[in-house]
Amino acid sequence: MKELLSWEEWAELDATGLAELIREKEVTPQEAARQAAKGIEALNPEISAVIEVFDDVVEDPLQDGMNPDGVFAGVPFLMKDLGPTIKGRLQEMGSLLMQGNRAEKDSFLTTKFRGAGLNIIGRTTTPELGLCSSAENPDLYVTRNPWNVNYTTCGSSAGSAASVAAGIVPIAHATDGGGSIRIPAGVNGNIGLKPSRGIFSLAPNGSDLMSVVSSQGAQTRTIRDMAAFVDHTRGGAPGEFMPFWHPDEPYTELIKKDPGKLRIAVSHEWGDYQATPEIVVELKKTAKFLEELGHDVEWTIPDIDFHAAYKAQTEAYIMNFSQTISEILEEKDLETPPAGLVEPMCIRVWEEGRHATYGERAKMQAVFNQLSRSTASYFEKWDIILTPTMALPTPLVGTTEYLTMSDNPSVYDWFHNLWSIFSYTSIANICGIPGISLPVAQLPNGLPFGMHALAKQGNDGLLLQLGAQIERALDGKWNDGRKPDIHVTKIQSMQKQ
Description:
38% of the residues lie in helices and 13% in strands. The chain is of the alpha+beta class. An 8-stranded mixed sheet has the order 6-8-7-12-13-11-9-10, sandwiched between helices. A 3-stranded mixed sheet has the order 1-3-2. Helix 8 (223-233) runs antiparallel to helix 16, helix 11 (306-331) packs across helix 12 and helix 11 crosses helix 13. The chain is globular, with a radius of gyration of 21 Å. The chain starts with 6 loop residues before the first helix and ends with a helix. The relative contact order is 0.14.
């Protein structure tokens, strides 16, 4: 198939722009899906980001109920292989144990994606059950960073981040239980918003009460795409336990206006963790840039009990993932996780957490409540907290200390390693507040690096407003206009090699 658009034209289009072409009948949903599938075919051998393409939906975008009149009007969309389910499709969660697992129905959020006009054409990689920092199990796949394939994409929204960065699709689904939207966005040069609790539904298999740290979302390359995505897919299913936030003004309209002068608190020394010197240099540059945009910027460490936060987050991960694994074992009539089918650290997490009591969970959630209220008090003085997205540079592929393939005998030491690099994102999950990673920085080795902004609960629109202000100041050139080594615009040159 000869592409309808040149790859340069394709890469310049965000989801909003592609949807406009589809509405104007310059491109059909089928043609857009075919071009995305061609991009996957060309680039996936290099980055291993996409597990499966739904060929039947590529050829007939309407067959699964996509709304051609939705805001995204047939834009091809990839789903992370974790979280919302797609009726009749495999969902294997990055696990050998889950191979062949097929969903019986669409999740509520899947129906919202389809209603917004997103054409779900395939599924993307994730580490086992989304627990660790990158999708690296050689028996399944090793997802690589399009900017330099020797480095990881981080995770757990690994394949979605790589697919957007490589220009295959302009938008892809992602999830975030401790930074899994924002961290891979940061290291792949994308925009990643972890929304407030009470934005996206987890129905029918979860709720904001049951899955208190988990959020749904997306990876995009423009702020307007993120704003439209939230506007048109947000909202609770019938019977939600928690109230859902609804803004006074659609985000697509809000982002057209600059925010007022913001009070921005900048920091990177959180508890026992701090960023490396080269990352601090980039943080200082970002702080100065925001000051030049007219905001009040001050270096100050949030008045938060960070030790309690990391301890509670560790306990939450152990309890939640242990419960998830126990439920899978029960469904499969197994007493213990098979060593050949479940990764070593996932087994240790299950062993550590399977006997946790209700009292222990209640105590952990009480700490969450305390942290949430102290963080909210901090936002009475500050509009934004600015940090790096990570404290350490992007790891090389095969850095096992952050993987569930790790042979570390201590679950707690393993989590300490995670927090040492992913120091700043999990507080948003604990407190239910929004956080965004924006691609404004660069590491000395040339890899992109995100800067991370937090706002008070329900103030997602402010983060998008700030992102839009920065985007306009940069003339839309995130990552200084650079493209990754593995990118659709380089397909012809790659094929000649």
